[in-house]
Amino acid sequence: MTCKLSETDIPPLSQRSPEPEVIAPDGSEIRLLIGARHLSRGASMVEVTLGAGQVSRPVYHQTVEEVWYVLEGRGQVWRCPPDAAEPALVSAVSVAAGDALVIPTGWAFQFCADEGADLRFLCFTLPPWPGEDEAQPAEYGGLGEPTV
């Protein structure tokens, strides 16, 4: 038996762009992989790259949760709950290829790439990324002054 569907019924494949499509509010490079154009209604996925030795701008997300999977490089990720009394006391975690973590909704976060190699990771967003105003600047970031 052969399944006959029109091409409009089948979610299209995605290809990684050689160049970033967007610079995120945190300063990282974004390559769009999965979203509404692929008929995804429950999540989106991007590839994020932060250059070697760079420190992102601290931000928080209003409505989405992110799940990160590190593909290559090493770095640190600082995550802080919205009700933290002293964000400066919240410590960062070291990450490397093969590590995964969650950025809960409303948590401030900042990340950096170690010298010598870019930090590159997949980022799954639940629900799908809603638009430009989702990421908001955070008052404090635990990894120092941004460089992007």
Keywords:
globular, 6-stranded antiparallel β-sheet, 5-stranded antiparallel β-sheet, about 150 residues, 11 strands, about 40% strand
Report what the structure shows.
The protein is mostly beta strands and 148 residues long. It contains no helices and eleven strands. The chain has strands at 22-23, 29-34, 44-50, 59-61, 65-72, 74-80, 93-96, 100-103, 108-113, 119-126, 135-137. A six-stranded antiparallel β-sheet has the order 1-2-3-10-5-8, with no helix packed on it. A five-stranded antiparallel β-sheet has the order 7-6-9-4-11, with no helix packed on it. The mean pLDDT is 93.
Contiguous helical run count: 0
What percentage of residues falls in helices of 4 or more residues? under 10%
Instruction: Report the average pLDDT across residues.
Output: 93
Alpha-beta classification? mainly beta
Which strand order does the major sheet show? 1-2-3-10-5-8
Q: Kindly, what is the distance between the CA atoms of the first and last residues, rounded to a whole number of angstroms?
A: 55 Å
Could you list the spans in which at least 5 consecutive residues all have pLDDT below 50? none
CA gyration radius, whole angstroms: 17 Å
Shape by Cα distribution: globular
Task: Please summarize the sheet with the most strands.
Answer: 6 strands, antiparallel
**Strand and helix order:** EEEEEEEEEEE
Which percent band covers the strand fraction? Answer: 35-45%
Number of strands: 11
